[in-house]
UniProtKB/TrEMBL annotation:
GO biological process, one term: regulation of DNA-templated transcription
InterPro entries tied to this protein: CheY-like_superfamily, OmpR/PhoB-type_DNA-bd, Sig_transdc_resp-reg_receiver, WalR-like, WH-like_DNA-bd_sf
Pfam families linked: Response_reg
Modified positions (4-aspartylphosphate) in chain numbering: 61
Organism from which the protein derives: Nocardia yunnanensis
Protein's recorded name: DNA-binding response regulator
Lineage: Bacteria, Bacillati, Actinomycetota, Actinomycetes, Mycobacteriales
Domain Response regulatory span(s) in chain numbering: 12-126
Domain OmpR/PhoB-type, chain residue ranges per copy: 134-223
SUPFAM superfamilies: CheY-like
GO molecular function: phosphorelay response regulator activity; transcription cis-regulatory region binding
Cellular compartments per GO CC: cytosol; protein-DNA complex
Entry superkingdom: Bacteria
Entry keywords, A to Z: DNA-binding, Phosphoprotein
Length: 223
């Protein structure tokens, strides 16, 4: 248990920092604070790791050798993943901060920084109120694998687009609860007028009997 009452035990953090010396220092500091840490040095490896493990927090440098770390956060958000993300950068500016937050980052820390401050920010992002999503949602004959991003119905693997999966994941995580078109649009990145078409395609792919039902103010998933 940390000194602020939030336990780091079992909390997985991905650190993506191209400066290997700094990356090792950050990883060692977080491990010393009780976090479990995976360390990567480029965007490609970080993206791959996000596809095989559910992290509790992402710490990503913006200036990576193969791209901007903000792109990883943007892709996570577009896919419906809300894992807390903290961006670190050597180029601090008001514009950079605004861009980072607009791209989906939860926090932003300019270099150089104290490891104690970084650990405190990670603890704040990983409070118990930010519950880690259940990797597998099983709803009757529907199985939504949030880790591998696969969907099966009656054991049959379905082919969904990224946005269709995002919409289904949102509906399945709130089964029986009304989800508005605006909420689906925010999750999937689709403009409002296309949400009806998106849900229609998704409903057709899920097959019979229908699982998604239309209400005056939105959609509900029932099994």
């Amino acid at each position: 248990m940390s000194d602020d009452g939030v336990s780091a035990r079992g909390v997985w953090v991905l650190v993506c920092e191209d400066d290997r010396q700094l990356g090792e220092r950050v990883a060692d500091g977080l491990r010393g604070a009780g976090f479990a840490v995976d360390l990567t040095h480029n965007l490609t490896d970080a993206t791959r790791r996000c596809g095989v493990r559910l992290y509790d927090c992402l710490i990503v440098d913006r200036g990576l050798p193969d791209g901007d770390g903000l792109e990883l956060v943007r892709r996570q958000r577009e896919s419906g993943d809300r894992t807390p993300a903290l961006l670190i950068t050597a180029r601090d500016s008001a514009g950079g901060r605004a861009e980072s937050y607009a791209g989906g980052a939860d926090d932003y820390l300019p270099k150089p920084f104290a490891l104690g401050e970084l650990a405190a920010r990670v603890r704040a992002l990983c409070t118990p109120h930010r519950a880690r999503p259940t990797p597998l949602l099983t709803l009757g004959d529907l199985a939504v694998d949030r880790l591998r991003r696969r969907v099966r119905r009656n054991g049959i693997l379905l082919t969904l687009t990224t946005r269709e999966f995002c919409a289904l994941e949102l509906l399945a995580s709130r089964v029986g609860t009304l989800v508005t078109p605006a909420e689906i649009a925010a999750c999937c990145g689709d403009p409002g007028p296309t949400i009806d078409d998106l849900i229609t395609r998704l409903t057709r792919k899920l097959g019979d009997p229908p699982l998604i039902h239309t209400a005056p103010a939105g959609y509900l998933l029932h099994t």
